[in-house]
Amino acid sequence: MTDSKYFTTTKKGEIFELKAELNSDKKEKKKEAVKKVIASMTVGKDVSALFPDVVNCMQTDNLELKKLVYLYLMNYAKSQPDMAIMAVNTFVKDCEDPNPLIRALAVRTMGCIRVDKITEYLCEPLRKCLKDEDPYVRKTAAVCVAKLHDINAQLVEDQGFLDTLKDLISDSNPMVVANAVAALSEIAESHPSSNLLDLNPQSINKLLTALNECTEWGQIFILDCLANYTPKDDREAQSICERVTPRLSHANSAVVLSAVKVLMKFMEMLSKDLDYYGTLLKKLAPPLVTLLSAEPELQYVALRNINLIVQKRPEILKHEMKVFFVKYNDPIYVKLEKLDIMIRLASQANIAQVLAELKEYATEVDVDFVRKAVRAIGRCAIKVEQSAERCVSTLLDLIQTKVNYVVQEAIVVIKDIFRKYPNKYESVIATLCENLDSLDEPEARAAMIWIVGEYAERIDNADELLESFLEGFHDESTQVQLQLLTAIVKLFLKKPTETQELVQQVLSLATQDSDNPDLRDRGYIYWRLLSTDPVAAKEVVLAEKPLISEETDLIEPTLLDELICYIGTLASVYHKPPSAFVEGGRGVVHKSLPPRTASNESTESPETAPAGAPTGEQPDVIPTQGDLLGDLLNLDLGPPVSGPPLATSSVQMGAVDLLGGGLDSLMGDEPEGIGDTNFGAPPPAAPARVGAPIGSGLSDLFDLTSGVGTLSGSYVAPKTVWLPAMKAKGLEISGTFTRQVGSISMDLQLTNKALQVMTDFAIQFNRNSFGLAPAAPLQVHAPLSPNQTVEISLPLNTVGSVMKMDPLNNLQVAVKNNIDIFYFSTLYPLHILFVEDGKMDRQMFLATWKDIPNENEAQFQIRDCSLNAEAVSTKLQSSNIFTIAKRNVEGQDMLYQSLKLTNGIWVLAELRIQPGNPSFMLSLKCRAPEVSQHVYQAYETILKN
Amino acid sequence: MISQFFILSSKGDPLIYKDFRGDSGGRDVAELFYRKLTGLPGDESPVVMYHEDRHFIHIRHSGLYLVATTSENVSPFSLLELLSRLATLLGDYCGSLSEGTISRNVALVYELLDEVLDYGYVQTTSTEMLRNFIQTEAVVSKPFSLFDLSSVGLFGAETQQSKVAPSSAASRPVLSSRSDQSQKNEVFLDVVERLSVLIASNGSPLKVDVQGELRLKSFLPSGSEMRIGLTEEFCVGKSELRGYGPGIRVDEVSFHSSVNLDEFESHRILRLQPPQGELTVMRYQLSDDLPSPLPFRLFPSVQWDQGSGRLQIYLKLRCDLPPKSQAVNIRLHLPLPRGVVSLSQELSSPEQKAELGEGALHWDLPRIQGGSQLSGLFQMDVPSSLGASGHGPSTSSPPLGLGPASLSFELPRHTCSGLQVRFLRLTFRPSGNANPHKWVRHLSHSDAYVIRI
């Protein structure tokens, strides 16, 4: 036989020849003919014309020939559905063949023929094969269910194949179990809600048993399935881990990684104090290290996974730094990945070693790699503070080499180091300036210009340096142009006398000669700032910048947790959740790590975080960060912001109408006071004024008007934790709201649970239902050192902008410090909004009560309150709920009360108290009925405390 | 779950194309893959590629591309493992993996694929298990001859060996089952170690790693049982020590699942019934302390005169193997500063060769006997533009871009860990035919042996 036998070029009549051979009597000849047909098919020739002839060969005892014919059928049945029907009878007959190989072959092939007419005939044979005595047939049938489900899901459900498939999970043959698990997992993915893979301790046990017996590939299916299970407690998690651990030493890396995934996920549930936790950590390292001796392709995939694991649990590999040292002959993609992991593992203990390596890498030949190595040195400086000095000197050494790209890269990272450690390494600026001429890449030029502008006062010839860049202004890239503009403005603000000409030149270049809108806009902003108020300009342009931290290049924690659930899958290679790249809706069920069950320690997983926080109804109020960001920060929190947020014109009118319903005629004879602050149109002057004077002015005002209010002020709830430390990089905030003599304040307690000093605190509220806003900046006078706690009372006013929140009393807050910006939301008790002049005239009360339609009346029951009418009345009055009249009807005390909210909404109440009965009836009438629920809650709170 | 599998020739022609899930796209996918692959920029990882909801994972084997595609979030490890297993399997069944053997055996390959993968789920990759299902016989180009000793090599390791083992013995189908019996009675056992070493410029080793494997290729009839005896002093883990001599210690060992370890603890004997075909019996690794000294030491001295741009490098390479052993095919690769021209050389023996190429110095040494040393003196001119200003005082520090030196070599009959196979015994032979040929070979070769200068 010669090589080219099957590949002769198409001659005329070749099909004809094949046809003749196919119809030959001799088996051998037929077989050879079918082989030729298949060879032609592979190289892309159309041999579909031979369909009937090939199908004729199907009825044979020769297994080899049969297989060949089936192969052909799979390929062409789709294009010739009518002809394919001819084969059905043989298929059905073959499904009953005494030879299990033929039975399996028939059922497998039928599943691959995606023709509706054939699938109808498939059901009966499939049902038999699922119960076949031979495991080879059963395992093939199990997969066939998945195939059929893909073609016709309804049919599979109607025929009850899913139940049969579920039974196969308990099959005696591990191969069958593995295929059944794989098929069920896939079917379950397309019906996320269905409970197909009902994992319970019993079925898990079966899977774990099968795990020990089945082939490596089956083990992967089973492990992946186990990873979707959530054990009920830490004990169960531990016992599963114990049985999965032996897989870590398997030769197949896919088995190892699937086992790692299960362990990483279940470890989340184990307490860190447990001995077993430590053992498990130790066991995870060797298999991961072993993966690094595989082929580069596997290494790369392994490194991408290790990158995730290291971010989640750095302790696993903290002693294995050496294995990530780059080998000379590693492919570049492996090198870069290793570099990244080295930095993640860098710590004070090993930084010397790492730096020595990085310096070595920086002298290699591969330009890309060298650049990354230089960058890595900068990242080390930012990550490990103690090493910063050493890193800077290493970078200076590298700059001395004068190799162009090394110098440029070094300057870019030195800029970052300046951002992290301001005013510390300025001595190097001189060296940097020497290399000004050699910079030809935009990023490096921009970095250098930034440095010159930032430290203009220390560089004698800063103006000359910047001027030299200005000459070719229009040839520079946008990045450099913007940076140059800012730097020159900075320079001007620092040395106004000598540089006036320069700044005018750059402003005119940017605004008049450029057609880049960004550049023009920035130019105009500076121009106007400088011309209207140079002092303000100084504050804006030379404002202190937030420090950068190494966390900027970490994967965001929630994404990381999700990705940990996808270890050993494509998601872990792309570092993207599957929803970002998997077609359609399949497999995009979000996975999350299980919460830790042992509750005796302060937990670490974010899911359980609110456990210690306020009340049960709280969690669903907390919005996702993404939503908040949009709403809250129309403003940049960069420089500490003070005063109420700017009243933007986008106040939602719908919300105003709803809430303002109570503002009708009642407002008419209102005495002047804060009550008439109509939030539909906040005082236009508000943004310009600083908050503090308003706040104090308000309390003065109230001192005069609130004759009735008692001095003690209204009820104050104890402080609760609003922002747990673990969600805010170590900053814990707890607080409560108070109202005293007419002024509202937010009493905060800030605790620094991080290891670094916190400074530069600022606070801002999102728009909320009642326009609550800080009346003064958040003043934390001294930096907050670790473990220190500070108590602050932040005065609030209600002149902020308004947006209806759900629930009504939800308040979203952003707190900034030198580390980051954090968001949380809290519910404030409504009674802090009850104003001191909420006592209504009797006549007015009657009229209003009648005037408000009955459907606005809401009834509530206050249980378990043993006070009498007098005590109730006094108590409520101290929180500005005023009793207007009291009646006794049939032995019951009826109290008629009124209160007014800061935005002028009146609420009228009827409180029915039956002596001896601890349950009170409360009827509330209000034109804005949505507040009733919260007023009732305020009643409850006040009366029960 | 694999959607498609295909094999492309080195020129991108599809040799095999199999669709498991009735995905659209068809054959164009193969073409698309090749276009994407050839259009890749240098540093992008080609391991996993992504195009319109389809992920490509491929390996390159003997000049062929084995590619799997999937549209789901599956484990890339399992795909990579599968592809390399398939490469082994196809080698087992077709004799060797090459464009020729694949296109001669299209029907066989399809049959194999059908058994290995069903609806994209991997069923099995064991040669032994598949034997029960495969009907088609391999088409072999040349009849195999035991006496065809024209070229010499180890299967698996791309290397050379002085002890003669018939190379083509290892590249014939394991399962040409119905051919005559006398030829199949062979078993090959290789102990192959890969050495990766990093030596600092002061000569102290920074990192030493040895990855070893016991690889078995068996042509024995199935059901044969064998025992492999390893060095008795062999110990695993940091603490354990055995025997009186210097122990042979490794950090980690993993075994193939078919290996019976009953006698391992007591006598270091592995017992197994090898399936026909290739099998990695054991894998081990060892880092940091080697029982024996590193095979090579390099003593460089560099003189660099920045003014004249003259670079003089004197390299002395010492082989610290035992005197009876030798290293072969040694090649030293030393990257040089950019723009180096005009090499002049003085080498210590005539069989050596040195040349400039791709910005590096290549120094080839056919062999070095243990305990000896060889040297070379190289002089080059570096255009002064690189040194720029020239006012730098540094005549001592080498110019940028020089080094590190990397060595590649082979150490036949030597294992760096010291691990040896004491014996290979067949305990049970089903058909009781003539004594089989047993070939046991030891070999170490370099993976990355880097010396900083």
Low-confidence segments of chain A, given as residue ranges, are 1-5, 598-711
Percent of sequence in beta strands of chain A: 5-15%
The biggest beta sheet of chain B reads: 9 strands, mixed
The description of the largest β-sheet of chain A is: 5 strands, antiparallel
Domain Clathrin adaptor alpha/beta/gamma-adaptin appendage Ig-like subdomain (chain A): 715-825
Biased composition (Polar residues) (chain A): 597-606
Keywords (chain A): Acetylation, Membrane, Protein transport, Transport
Membrane topology (chain A): Peripheral membrane protein
Strand and helix map with partners:
The complex is a heterodimer of chains A (945) and B (453).
Chain A: H1 14-22, H2 27-42, H3 51-56, H4 63-76, H5 81-94, H6 100-112, H7 116-130, H8 135-151, H9 153-158, H10 161-168, H11 174-190, H12 201-213, H13 216-226, H14 234-244, H15 253-267, H16 275-291, H17 296-312, H18 332-345, H19 351-361, H20 367-383, H21 388-400, H22 404-420, H23 429-434, H24 442-454, H25 462-470, H26 478-494, H27 500-512, H28 517-532, H29 534-541, H30 557-564, H31 570-574, H32 625-632, H33 653-659, H34 691-705, E1 720-723, E2 731-740, E3 743-752, E4 762-765, E5 773-774, E6 789-797, E7 810-816, E8 821-827, H35 842-851, E9 857-862, H36 869-878, E10 882-889, E11 892-900, E12 906-913, E13 920-926, H37 932-943
Antiparallel strand pairs in A: 1-2, 2-3, 3-6, 4-7, 5-6, 7-8, 9-13, 10-11, 11-12, 12-13
Chain B: E1 4-8, E2 14-19, H1 28-38, E3 48-51, E4 54-61, E5 64-70, H2 76-94, H3 99-104, H4 106-116, E6 117-118, E7 121-122, H5 127-131, E8 186-199, E9 205-218, E10 225-230, E11 234-236, E12 248-250, E13 252-255, H6 264-267, E14 269-272, E15 277-287, E16 296-305, E17 310-319, E18 326-335, E19 341-347, E20 353-357, E21 360-369, E22 373-381, E23 405-412, E24 421-428, E25 437-451
Parallel strand pairs in B: 8-25, 11-12
Antiparallel strand pairs in B: 1-2, 1-5, 3-4, 4-5, 6-7, 8-9, 9-15, 10-14, 10-24, 13-15, 16-17, 17-22, 18-21, 18-23, 19-22, 20-21, 23-25
